[in-house]
Design goal:
Strand order of the largest sheet: 7-8-14-19-16-15-13
Distance between the termini: 57 Å
Number of helices: 15
Shape: extended
Helix content: 25-40%
Structural class: alpha+beta
C-alpha cells in the first residue's frame, strides 16, 4: 500500500516544477471576538441562557484544543474588541489582547475557560466593561501585527476569524467603516485570510450587505473551494463549532500535479486527503534521569569485522538464476523511475463500471490549482460538469512523485452541495479512486451454500428493515482516541476527574429490543424451523478454545436442508445430538437410529 501513498522525502523528490509538495511548517490563526453589550445577551433565550460571547469563547476554546491535538506546531492568539479597557502594545482604544500568537498549551486553555465561566461577573472588573469606541480596522491591524511578529515565511497560512452579532458596527462613523474596508483589502494582498462568524440566534438576522459583505473581497479561494463567508447565521452551537473547525484549519494539498487531458492541453490540480486514519501520537522516549528526549541513531555494521559502514559502502542486490545481481544507487533510482509526476487522461468509462468490489484503498480528492496554470479552474469545472451530465468517469494513470509506481485511477465527479444554512456539505471536485491491477485480484472459490427458504429470507429482511439507520461517520468518535485525549487533558489541566465519555460504538440494546424485538424472535424461530442455529457466544475454557472452534465448525450445518433432501443419514452422531439438545428434542438414546427418528419427527411435525 505504501507504493502509492502521496508521501514525499528529500531523496526521491525531484527539483522540476511538475510536482509540488507542501513543507511541514506552521499555521497561524488569530481569533477576534466582539465584546459589545449585545454579545452579552442570551443568544437563544428559549433554549439556553448562554450569551453570544460565551458561545464564541467556547468555540475558540474547543478550536484551540483541536489545534493542540491535531497540529501541535500551529499558533493561536485571541483578542477582544469593544472592551472598556485598552490592553495592547499599539495603544488602540478599546481593544484587549487575551493571548498573544503562540503555541497554545494548558495555560491558554485554562485562561479561556476561566474567562468564559466568569465573564458575566468579572468582565467589568477584568476588562473595564463595554465600549463602542473601537475600530474594526485597528483590531484587524493589531491581528496582522501579531503575524508580523512571528514572520510570514515561517507560517504556511495566516487566518483571522472574527466573531460578532453586530452586522453594522460603524453605522454612524463612515471614516472607521472605510478604514476597515481598506485594512481588509490589505490583509488579502498580504495573504491573510479573513473570515467572519455571525453569532446570531433567536430568529435574529445578520445582514451581510450592511458592512461585512462589502469588506470581505472574495468568495472563493485559489483552489476553487468556497470559504463560506456569506453563510447564514445559526443558533446551534454544534454547527457554529463546525464552521470554526472548517475555517481554522488550512486547506492544504498533499501535492500538485500536472493533469494532461490531451495533446498540448494540460492544467494543474491539487491533491487532497479528505479521509485519513487518526492515530494516537507516537510515544516519545525520554532519558530517565533528566527527561531529555532520547535521539535514535542507526549504525550499519560489517557482519565479518564488526566495523561500522558508511552509506556509500552499502550495495543492494537481487537474486536471479542463483546469482547476486548488484545495483548501485543510480541504477536503483533509475529502476524506480516511471516518468515525470503527472496525471494523464486515458479515456472515459460509464460510472456504473466503477464497482465497489474493486476498492483498493481510500481515495484522494482533486481540485484545480490556478496558481500554477491560469485557467485550470475553467477547464476543470467544464470537464466535471460534462462527466456529471453524461454519467461517466475519466480513467487516468497517476504518478504522484518521482520514484513512485504508476497507478490506474478513476476520477469520480462530485458536485458542490450546501446545507440549508449555507455551510458547504460537499466540495466540487473529483474523487481520485485507485483501481486494482490484474495482480491484485484474488480468485477465491467458495463452496455453494444451501438455498434458504423464502420464509427465512423474509424474516431476515424484516430484521434488516427494522435496524436500518442513516449512517454518518461524523456521528461516531473513535472511543480509543477520546479516552486517550480526555486523560491527557485532565493531566495537563490539573483536573480532579476525567471528563465522561460516551462510546457510541456500543450497541443500544434497549433501542434494538424496542424496534426489532418481535422480528428478531420471529427470525430465531424461522432458524429453528430450518434446522439452523446461531453459533454460541458463551465463554469457553481456555484449554478448549481450539477444539471448540473445530467442533462448532462441524455443528454449523443446515439440518433442515438435509431433512428435506432425505440426507439425514449423512450427519454424524455428534451433529444429531447437538441439534436435539439445542431444540430440546427427546432422545431415547444416543444410538444414531433413535436420533434420526427424533430429528425426522421434529421436521414432520413442523411441516404438518
Amino acid at each position: 500500500m505504501d507504493d502509492f501513498m502521496f508521501d514525499f522525502d528529500d531523496e526521491s523528490e525531484s527539483a522540476d516544477d511538475s510536482s509540488h509538495s507542501f513543507a511541514s511548517i506552521r499555521d497561524g490563526v488569530v481569533f477576534v471576538i466582539d465584546s459589545g453589550t449585545t454579545m452579552f445577551e442570551p443568544m437563544n433565550p428559549s433554549e439556553s441562557d448562554k450569551t453570544a460571547f460565551e458561545i464564541s469563547l467556547e468555540c475558540v476554546e474547543n478550536g484551540i484544543k483541536n489545534k493542540i491535538v491535531a497540529e501541535s506546531r500551529d499558533l493561536s492568539g485571541v483578542l477582544l474588541f469593544g472592551t472598556g479597557a485598552t490592553r495592547n502594545s499599539s495603544g488602540f482604544a478599546n481593544i484587549s489582547v487575551v493571548t498573544e500568537l503562540e503555541w497554545p498549551g494548558a495555560p491558554t486553555v485554562v485562561g479561556l475557560e476561566k474567562l468564559r465561566k466568569s465573564c458575566r461577573v468579572r468582565f467589568s472588573s477584568d476588562f473595564g466593561g463595554h465600549s463602542d469606541g473601537f475600530s474594526i480596522g485597528e483590531a484587524l491591524w493589531l491581528a496582522q501585527s501579531m503575524f508580523a511578529g512571528i514572520g510570514a515565511r515561517s507560517l504556511a497560512s495566516r487566518r483571522i476569524i472574527l466573531f460578532t452579532n453586530e452586522d453594522n458596527p460603524h453605522a454612524n462613523n463612515p471614516a472607521k467603516s472605510r478604514a476597515a474596508k481598506t485594512k481588509a483589502r490589505d490583509l488579502e494582498e498580504n495573504g491573510i485570510a479573513l473570515d467572519v462568524i455571525p453569532v446570531v440566534g433567536g430568529g435574529k438576522s445578520f445582514d451581510w450587505g450592511n458592512f461585512y459583505g462589502k469588506m470581505l473581497p472574495r468568495e472563493d479561494d485559489e483552489d476553487g473551494g468556497s470559504l463560506l463567508r456569506n453563510a447564514d447565521p445559526v443558533a446551534k452551537i454544534e454547527e457554529l463549532m463546525e464552521r470554526v473547525r472548517i475555517k481554522q484549519f488550512a486547506k492544504r494539498s498533499l501535492c500538485k500535479l500536472r493533469f494532461t487531458i490531451g495533446e498540448g492541453v494540460a492544467i494543474h490540480v491539487g491533491v487532497f486527503a479528505l479521509v485519513g486514519e487518526t492515530r494516537k501520537p507516537t510515544a516519545v522516549k525520554l532519558e530517565k534521569r533528566n527527561n531529555e528526549e532520547v535521539k535514535v541513531r542507526s549504525t550499519y555494521l560489517d557482519s565479518a569485522t564488526g566495523e561500522s559502514l558508511l552509506r556509500s559502502e552499502i550495495q543492494h542486490y537481487a537474486e536471479f538464476g542463483g546469482r547476486r545481481i548488484v545495483f548501485d544507487a543510480d541504477e536503483l533510482k533509475e529502476l524506480r523511475n516511471f516518468g515525470a509526476p503527472e496525471l494523464r487522461l486515458l479515456g472515459f468509462r460509464p460510472r456504473s463500471s466503477l464497482r465497489p468490489v474493486d476498492h483498493v484503498r481510500s481515495s484522494h480528492f482533486l481540485q484545480p490549482a490556478d496558481s500554477l496554470t491560469a485557467g485550470s479552474s475553467t477547464l476543470f469545472l467544464a470537464l466535471l460538469r460534462r462527466c456529471l451530465v453524461r454519467d461517466v468517469v475519466p480513467l487516468c494513470v497517476a504518478i504522484p512523485r518521482r520514484g513512485s509506481h504508476p497507478r490506474f485511477v478513476a476520477l469520480l465527479p462530485q458536485p458542490e452541495e450546501f446545507t440549508a444554512t449555507g455551510v458547504q456539505r460537499t466540495p466540487t471536485g473529483f474523487h481520485l479512486v485507485y483501481l486494482p491491477f490484474s495482480d491484485d485480484l484474488r480468485d477465491v472459490r467458495l463452496d455453494a451454500a444451501p438455498e434458504p427458504s423464502r420464509n427465512l429470507v423474509d424474516s431476515a429482511v424484516n430484521v434488516v428493515r427494522k435496524l436500518t439507520f442513516r449512517y454518518n461517520p461524523e456521528d461516531f468518535e473513535n472511543p480509543t482516541l477520546q479516552k486517550h485525549w480526555r486523560n491527557v487533558e485532565a493531566l495537563a489541566l490539573d483536573r480532579e476527574s476525567v471528563e465522561a465519555m460516551v462510546d457510541y460504538t456500543e450497541p443500544d440494546n434497549a433501542m434494538i429490543e424496542t424496534r426489532a424485538g418481535a422480528v428478531l424472535q420471529t427470525f430465531l424461530e424461522s432458524l429453528s424451523t430450518e434446522g439452523l442455529t446461531l453459533p454460541s457466544l458463551g465463554n469457553k475454557r481456555p484449554g478448549a478454545a481450539a477444539s471448540g472452534s473445530a467442533k462448532r465448525a462441524k455443528l454449523e450445518v443446515n439440518v433442515g436442508y438435509y431433512a428435506r433432501e432425505g440426507l439425514l443419514g449423512k450427519l454424524t452422531v455428534a451433529q444429531l445430538v447437538e441439534f436435539c439438545s439445542q431444540n430440546r428434542l427427546s432422545m431415547k438414546s444416543k444410538r444414531k437410529q433413535d436420533l434420526l427418528n427424533a430429528v425426522s419427527g421434529h421436521f414432520n411435525k413442523s411441516v404438518a
